[in-house]
């Protein structure tokens, strides 16, 4: 009786704590109850719920597995499946849900989440549709959000065209999911508008709560801004995308999945540049729990980029390790093998790279075409064009395609192997003939050839004519003319080819050429002259026409002669004297030029060796004249000073003829002056 009374008090305590949300205190009371009765089913259930509310999922699952006899699957199926789901044991959670005898609404909700994590989107879509149809409560908006998320995942990862669910985009979550679906369809501009609307709705809804700060709003908007940056990256606006990505990283959001995706996208923008920044961003992709936040294709893309970054940073062993791991996970995927081949090429092991690709093509024939294209590219890089052509011709599903035919013909022409190029044309034309025969079921009635077939025949004929193979081109030209007898150009080519082989046949065919009257072109001259290309010609022709009109008008009129101005004659011109015929030549080039006349003083200066004197130097020596006084007075003789007071020293004497020269210069200046004071 005492134990029962104590248990009743503990149960009331558990009830009160549960209503208040104090599950830690409620757990203590439940443990006391279990001490009284360890197999109490209700107490065990309450203990599991308290542990789940406190986030102790592993301990809660341990309690369930320990008391399997008491806590059967019918009693606690939802709690067990939820603990497994939160511990990322998704397959186990699915088995637990499917083994439950009764599918409650809670189990159906969890079943939808489990299917989404397993990427079984078709089953998930059906589960949520059933939930929305058969339930009416306050969680209807959340179910619609989850339904739109499933549709967005189908559009993004499975490339399924989403159907219109008729959901009213009243919340920013619905707008965001709708934008993701549009991105999967490639409608980037519409998706950007949806994301902008989602941003506005998010700000409005969060700003109504007074407890939410601006930092909280920016953190909530981080995923929307991340999708905006992704759209910019797809549109080629890499600088804008990179700036927005870095802004999100600076906010340090708690969502490790978002950080991993943004870091991966930055690495793809950097490519083989800025590898140090890429190596820093790789650390964000290795955060704990990332593998549970992203889809398989997202994780695979991140691993591919890690391998490529290792190759760019010359980490060969790391690159091989990552690519081998990827190949073991997806044996039929092309990228791991291509990365390994690229790494071998960086190590100058081209032959080994080609062998690796050949082995993969033999093991996976479905992907052999793309692998062989890569092998051909490697052979071309090595200069082995002929071997590259052999590899390309071994791709049966592509050898008749116009692009492949054009590439092979170009490569063979580069190697001057005209016979092989013609053989490529012949095989492609035969393939289309056989294909047409199969589609017509052997019918002998004349059937027009396809445009691709005719195009190949024409290109083959032109190629043969270009390289002087007119005999071989005749059959192709006849086939083209048979398909279109009105084609004058083909007929002209055929006649030209026959003229060298069979002139008589050329004459017969020339009768089919249209007459000159029928070949007159109906051209609108006015429209042709007014066209953009004829502008310059029309202007030039207009000028010429105007000149001709002026000439015609001037035939009947007397042309007025313009008066010529008389040339100015020199002042000393004498009409009786014949002008000098050499007057137009420079003075130095005239026959009578004898050079300038030099003065006596100029003749005397500078002749002879340096320091020598001329015959007239004695005349300049003042010491030889009797009347010349000493140049400097002797010390102590005052008479000498008085005697020389009236004599001008040599440095103060002016040279003879100086005043006359000055007057001549003044007269010249007066003659040249044009104005006065």
From TrEMBL:
Gene Ontology MF term list: 7S RNA binding; ribosome binding
Region (Disordered) residue spans: 538-677
Cellular compartment(s): Cytoplasm; Endoplasmic reticulum
Listed GO CC annotations: endoplasmic reticulum; signal recognition particle, endoplasmic reticulum targeting
Biased composition (Basic and acidic residues): 571-592
Superkingdom: Eukaryota
GO biological process: SRP-dependent cotranslational protein targeting to membrane
Predominant location category: cytoplasm
Keywords recorded for this protein, A-Z: Coiled coil, Cytoplasm, Endoplasmic reticulum, Repeat, Ribonucleoprotein, Signal recognition particle, TPR repeat
Xref: SUPFAM superfamilies: TPR-like (SSF48452)
InterPro entries according to UniProt: Signal_recog_part_SRP72_RNA-bd, SRP72, SRP72_TPR-like, TPR-like_helical_dom_sf, TPR_rpt
Pfam family, one: TPR_8
Compositional bias (Low complexity): 606-640
Positions with biased composition (Basic residues): 559-569, 661-677
Listed SMART domains: TPR
Domain Signal recognition particle SRP72 subunit RNA-binding stretches: 539-595
Repeat positions for TPR: 222-255
Coiled-coil residue spans: 90-145
UniProt record similarity statement: Belongs to the SRP72 family.
The protein's name: Signal recognition particle subunit SRP72
Organism name: Erpornis zantholeuca
